[in-house]
């Protein structure tokens, strides 16, 4: 089944166009699951335990999670294993998974990245459930950095999201380069629309398996970008801890409230930090994560309904 069709079905099942990002920092984990020793294996176990707890808390409210590989790679081989096991666990809980890997090399290197992060495993001892449903990419080395992933996505019903306009203000010096009417991010948007425009890339929902990462900035430029990519599903960063509101995300949706998946990470997964342990009483940290996920889903459900 085409990725965009699977994604739309998952969103409809929860009536929430949202995804929760799992970005575990050791120093911010609840005290009860902090590493028991200063080893990489202990750190990876703590992050995996936290990730499983987040997945359990948000699964009733959201259709997908986004697992950021960088946070796990910092714990070396132990963390890489935890990353793939978390993907499998999220699938067991009925969630779609975006692997936030941001790879962007060319030639045989791109093909091997695609094989390791998106393809059906070629090894008997690696379960297909450990592969994410989509991955994030940096397309700045051109189509050859993206095409190996797209080829696999087409064959396996998976997808890709290519960076167009990140949420980090420091990235604006790159992405705003050019004239006000022709910024660099606009050029990237046109390329991604082209790369994903072949009929074989388009699902029944009329969206491509080639998506874009687009942060909502001002409404005018966001709507202009949306118009340039009518067949492109968007992954929308910046909500919550980075300052974007649900209202700011409205311009990311197509008419009818489809075409966008809004991400929240820190504002959901660290929601328990707003209440001290002594104030929580008998409530577990997951209660606060689940409640934050529910509020997030409720807000974006309302936003999408009015698009």
Describe the structure.
- This protein has 307 residues and is an alpha/beta fold.
- It has a single domain, classed as Aldolase class I (TIM Barrel, Alpha-Beta Barrel), CATH 3.20.20.
- 45% of the residues lie in helices and 15% in strands.
- The protein is built from 13 helices and 10 strands.
- It has helices at residues 3-14, 40-58, 69-73, 76-92, 107-117, 143-156, 172-175, 184-195, 219-228, 246-249, 266-269, 277-280, 285-305, and strands at residues 18-22, 64-68, 96-103, 134-137, 159-165, 178-179, 182-183, 210-214, 234-236, 260-264.
- It has an 8-stranded parallel β-barrel, surrounded by 7 helices.
- Helix 2 (40-58) packs across helix 13.
- The two termini are 27 Å apart.
Short synopsis of the structure:
This protein has 307 residues and is α/β, with parallel strands linked by helices.
What is the correct CATH architecture? Alpha-Beta Barrel
Helix coverage percent of residues?
Answer: 40-55%
**What CATH first level would be assigned?**
Alpha Beta
CATH superfamily: Aldolase class I
Give me the CATH fold name. TIM Barrel
- In DSSP terms (H or I, runs of 4 or more residues), the helix count works out at 13
Poorly predicted ranges (pLDDT <50, ≥5 residues)? Answer: none
- Read across the widest sheet, the strand sequence of neighbours is 1-2-3-4-5-8-9-10
Spatial gap, N to C terminus = 27 Å
Sheet having the most strands: 8 strands, parallel, barrel
Provide the β-strand percentage band: 5-15%
Which secondary-structure class do the elements indicate?
Answer: alpha/beta
Q: Categorize the overall geometry.
A: globular
Total domains, how many?
1
Q: What's the average pLDDT?
A: 95
- Radius of gyration computed on alpha carbons: 19 Å
Order of helices and strands: HEHEHHEHEHEHEEHEHEHEHHH
How many strand segments?
Answer: 10
């Amino acid at each position: 089944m085409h990725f965009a069709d699977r994604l739309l079905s998952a969103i409809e099942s929860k009536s929430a166009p949202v995804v929760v990002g799992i970005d575990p920092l050791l120093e911010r984990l609840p005290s009860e699951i902090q590493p028991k020793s200063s080893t990489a294996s202990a750190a990876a176990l703590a992050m995996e335990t936290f990730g499983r707890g987040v997945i359990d808390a948000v699964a009733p409210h959201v259709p997908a999670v986004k697992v950021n590989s960088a946070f796990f790679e910092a714990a070396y081989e132990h963390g890489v294993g935890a990353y793939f096991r978390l993907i499998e666990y999220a699938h067991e809980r009925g969630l779609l998974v975006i692997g936030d890997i941001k790879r962007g090399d060319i030639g045989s290197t791109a093909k091997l990245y695609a094989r390791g992060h998106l393809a059906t495993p070629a090894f008997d001892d690696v379960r297909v459930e450990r592969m994410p449903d989509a991955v994030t990419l940096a397309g700045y080395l051109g189509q050859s950095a993206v095409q190996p992933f797209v080829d696999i996505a087409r064959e396996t019903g998976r997808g890709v999201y290519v960076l167009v306009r990140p949420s980090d203000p420091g990235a604006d010096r790159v992405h705003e380069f050019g004239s006000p009417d022709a910024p660099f991010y606009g050029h990237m948007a046109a390329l991604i629309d082209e790369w994903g425009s072949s009929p074989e890339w388009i699902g029944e929902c009329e969206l491509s398996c080639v998506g874009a990462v687009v942060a909502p900035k001002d409404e005018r430029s966001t709507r202009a970008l949306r118009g340039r990519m009518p067949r492109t599903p968007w992954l929308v960063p910046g909500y919550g801890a980075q300052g974007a509101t649900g209202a700011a995300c409205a311009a990311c949706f197509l008419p009818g409230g489809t075409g966008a998946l809004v991400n929240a990470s820190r504002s959901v997964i660290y929601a328990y930090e707003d209440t001290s342990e002594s104030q929580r009483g008998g409530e577990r940290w997951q209660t606060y994560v689940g409640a934050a996920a529910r509020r997030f889903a409720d807000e974006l459900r309302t936003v999408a309904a009015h698009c």
